[in-house]
Amino acid sequence: MLPGYALRCRMNVLPPCLNSIKSEAPAAVRCEACPAPWMHCSVRKFQKGQYPFSQGDAQGYVYRVQSGGLTLFLSLANGRRQVVDFAFPGDLVGLGSHRQFQFTAQAITRTELRCIPRDELRLQSLKDARIASMLYETAAFQLEEAYDHILTAGQRGSEGKLAAFLLAMSRRNVHHGDDPAVVHLPMLRTDIADYLGLTAETVSRTFTNFKAQGLIKIVDQRHVRLIEPRSLVRLANAIAASG
Amino acid sequence: MLPGYALRCRMNVLPPCLNSIKSEAPAAVRCEACPAPWMHCSVRKFQKGQYPFSQGDAQGYVYRVQSGGLTLFLSLANGRRQVVDFAFPGDLVGLGSHRQFQFTAQAITRTELRCIPRDELRLQSLKDARIASMLYETAAFQLEEAYDHILTAGQRGSEGKLAAFLLAMSRRNVHHGDDPAVVHLPMLRTDIADYLGLTAETVSRTFTNFKAQGLIKIVDQRHVRLIEPRSLVRLANAIAASG
DNA sequence: CGTGTGTTTGACCAGTCTCAAGAGCCGTGG
DNA sequence: CCACGGCTCTTGAGACTGGTCAAACACACG
């Protein structure tokens, strides 16, 4: 349909030059492949609910989430939204070859974004095969997540969808070195609903449902403890039947 | 969830060396960037229903569809399938860095696949930034399509989903130089259903529904003529509300 | 011309959406 | 410190879509 895409990536699949941005230190480490440009990156702060960029905006930068989080979504003609992805610290947003942002970003909480000049990134990737290759891997990683999303959203029933979502968020936790059993859900129920193709009411009901079944424990509105992950896996039967 | 992904691409976003494969002629054209390896590619033929590869198979080649078509899907633990994509002549299947195929391919009709050695493609991409860069663009293109799929499958209601699907297939037709008004649907209704997250019955009913509304005309089981594309666009309200 | 597969159609039912109201949480201001 | 207002989340009841099961039909193949 409409060309709705962009790239987001985990920092650890990026070239070393970009990894050096990770630390707040003024870039003691350089690699010969990547000249100075990355180091000039400024940081912008956004309040909860603000839109760092909207679909159609000219895209001059690639953003790296420093703290907080983003909801990435498409606005549809009928007023609905399709949440494409969430971005958390370490994720990159806005890679790809389009001149304009293909979707809108909204800050989930107070969020800091580091701005990486897009053109220079592109120039470097054309000069250095290692960078281009890394970008390719990054895109492939993105694609993996996108297919995972298709799989999750393609689940029949609200239980399967939400279970798959919780497990996916749990895996993200692991990725950030957090406890896989306690899932942090900073986004609104509405965002989860628009991500899964459900309504906020159904999401809420399904949470209550899981709680009643003893599958999860709702610590507070933003934290869920997974009590029976195996049961959740069974519900989210999006497990490739190998062979 | 599970690492279910792979790359497929349109030929025209590939490096020139790969484009030369396009013609059946024994590669009169070479580009200095790409040495001989591409030229050795053999062609394998598959009957309707056969599986060129399955998820978990060791992945030695990247395949280019010469004729026919493929359904790419994931088998789920509960016996259901999630169709990830369809591949038609000119499309590449199996890019990406995984050692094994992440999903299964099934021939829609009699299908010819050209086999491109995967390791050599990778080696070349590491040596030549242009190839790596092209692969990156390709992956970005794939991602665009994946997000489009999310959008389509995320539609509420069967009419929106099917309308979006028909329009997407129509655009593919244009891409191949065919009439955008007559959509060719070589795949099974079941495959369309598993692509959209519906059942075959619902897909069938919705087709009948569209026909009754005068939106489409069913030429034969594999060809649909779009009578009121604008109405279909309205149904598939997956149109980014710009601004 | 039969057989098997794929497709259409029908009836019934489960599940989700819609609309609506109430409960909880948080920041603000008195 | 408490009261207020707004927003989010939860819960409820009814309508409706799409899933399931079952059967008839159409088509391709040998």
Structure explained in plain terms:
- Chain A is an alpha+beta fold and 243 residues long.
- Chain A has two domains: 6-135, Jelly Rolls (Sandwich); 156-242, Arc Repressor Mutant, subunit A.
- Chain A is 37% helix and 23% strand.
- The first copy, chain A, has seven helices and eleven strands.
- Chain A has helices at residues 16-22, 118-127, 129-154, 158-175, 189-196, 200-212, 229-235; strands spanning 7-10, 42-46, 61-67, 70-75, 81-87, 91-95, 104-107, 111-117, 182-184, 216-220, 223-226.
- Chain A has a five-stranded antiparallel sheet with strand order 1-6-3-8-2. The first copy, chain A, has a three-stranded antiparallel sheet with strand order 5-4-7.
- In chain A, a hairpin with a 5-residue loop joins strand 4 (70-75) and strand 5.
- In chain A, helix 2 packs across helix 3 (129-154).
- The radius of gyration of chain A is 19 Å and the shape is globular.
- In chain A, 47% of the residues are buried.
- Residues 1-38 of chain A have low confidence and may be disordered.
- The interface between A and B is large, with 64 and 64 residues.
